Amino acid sequence: MSIHQQATISADPRRVYQVLADAEALSALSGMGGKVAWTAGHEFAAFDGNVTGRQIELVPGARIVQAWRFPRWEPGQYSLVTFTLAAVDGGTLLAIDQHGEPDDWHDHIAANWPTFYLTPLTEHFAAA
Q1: Cβ proximity of 84 and 62 under 8 Å
Q2: Which of 29, 75, 111, 126 has a Cα-to-Cα distance from 118 of 20 to 30 A?
Q3: pLDDT tens, residue by residue, 101-122
Q4: What CA–CA distance (Å, rounded) separates 113 from 56?
Q5: pTM, whole model, 2 decimals?
Q6: How far is 20 from 14, CA to CA, in rounded Å?
Q7: Can you give the pLDDT at residue 123?
Q8: Which H, E and C letters describe 106-125, residue by residue?
């Protein structure tokens, strides 16, 4: 299965990238903690450890690719998440594509991308 969601965020792609790539700053938008990983290959944790993974590719201002999981998934089970940022009138078009999530988690994950990523990012930059 796969998930695709997107939103326009009223900030430059490099500014959106800085928050999105920083699991600590991203988690703080929802009042939670995180562990940053700024280098491909390193592990990150977001939302008080409810999402963990490894940075696969980091292209500042353009793309983040992560091997991503919930700790409750079977050991070794990861999905691939790609965040693509593109400059558009009004800011950044942020597209999120996730592939390989367990079937029984698909609806939960799809419903919560806006809750933990799209809405907090949109509100953060609208207030800035």
Answers
A1: yes
A2: 75
A3: 999 999 999 999 999 999 999 9
A4: 20
A5: 0.94
A6: 10
A7: 95
A8: HHHHHHHHHHHHHHHHHHHH
Domain 2-127 has CATH 3.30.530.20: yes
Categorize the per-residue pLDDT at 80 as very low, low, confident or very high, splitting at 50, 70 and 90: very high
For the chain, how far is it from start to end, CA to CA, in angstroms?
Answer: 36
Inter-axis angle of helices 13-21 and 119-127, to 10 degrees?
130
62, 61, 67: which is closest to 79 by C-alpha? 67
pLDDT confidence of residue 39: 93
Cα dihedral: 19, 113, 84, 68 (round 10): 80
The whole-number pLDDT of residue 127 equals: 83
**Distance of alpha carbon 53 from alpha carbon 92, whole angstroms:** 25
Domain ranges of the chain: 2-127
15 pLDDT band, cuts 50/70/90, is very high
